[in-house]
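Handout, page 2. Input:
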Amino acid sequence: MDQFDSESYWNRSSSRGFSFDDDDDAPSASGSVGSNLNVCNILNDYDTISEASFDNSTTGSALNLSIKSVISNEALKMLLQEQTLDDRILSKGVAPEEELRLLRRQIQTTFYNPSPEATAHKLLLGKCVSLEVFKSLHEKEQLLDAVLKCGGGDAVIGVLLFLKKTLNKTNYHNVLEQRPQALQHYVSYLQQCQPQEAIEVLQNFGKHQEAALMQFKVAMACNDLQQRKRKLQQLIDQYSGVGMVSVYLQQFEAAFKLLDLVEKEHTALDNQIHLNSTPIELLYQCCRKHTNWKEQDITRTISPFRLSADLQIAPAQFEWTALNERANAQAYADLENVFERVPAWNPMKQKQFHISFSLELAILRLYALQAPTTVLYMFLSKMNNTMEKFELAQRVKCVRAVIDALAGMKDVTQLTQLKETLAQRSEEQFYCENALKALQTKRWSTDNIKLKL
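Output:
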């Protein structure tokens, strides 16, 4: 065919080019574009057409590709459904033909029922989707399951709000009860915008512990002291007889007592505490104001010993707070009284040193706060393991404790070497010499006993 014949062929009216808008000129008999969509026919047509042909010089054969080898039936169906929907909004100045085409597709979107998977995909992409086409309870459940499977948080909330608006309360609760993940999304959403409704939902589903904790959070968010106390009291009264949340009642009661102390002792503590003060912060201020550490007075309201008992502060927390406050205040003489306890099994016995956390942790903390070596030595002398005492004493540079540890291990060689490094006529040197003499005396006595035997 020559060039002229080729051009005349393409200019003939019988050889029209393909256009996506041909449906504007020849609408279907049913009036719905989606109704004539037949995926199976499309697939069969594509199977009979060679998509690509390649001349192979070696084999000399043509390679025919089927569309089924490129995309699955399900994916193609979803793609075609997606293409039948159009999200564009009519703009001003649009041509009548374009307006007619867009209006047809908008009507099709209204009456055509897309698959839940395609709708979920569009929601995840942030597209505007009309959910009113899902009318039955089964269709709505399928849509929710499809969105949950995709894992989109905002999309799940959007579908849940649609279900809440279009279903009665019983059916909506049944949907949530059968899908714990959806319930979790819904409660998280309500917690941000409607906390009271979130509490009611949790109570309706029997989740009393979560509801109690959320009520506690709402109460503690109140900026007015009296309002916060009132909400806490209501919370305590509501759950006093419920065994499922009894584990939290102590926390609620302690928070109420803390507010009482803040209200009563605000002035006594030099206005150093405020409405949102924690029990440890209040304990620190009580330690700062406490003067007589020799007596564990529990009659005074701001006594740290009474406060710890009222707010059920653990012994380790009390001791750690008192250690830090007394060390920061350089009131090192009170530290021994902080850690002295009367044995519970024998109240008539004298006080004994007791610490509820690691001695090593206490010594390292005091060293970091630049406590004197005499204070470090007092705590190091309480350690029973000689090797651990020796290593820790070296870390905190407490020479006297190092000497005690070497004497305990009867290491004369290291003691002699240590003595040579100490300043002449210093207190540490005299202490090291005495330790060496004590070891030599014990060794001489032991040797004499062996000779007599």
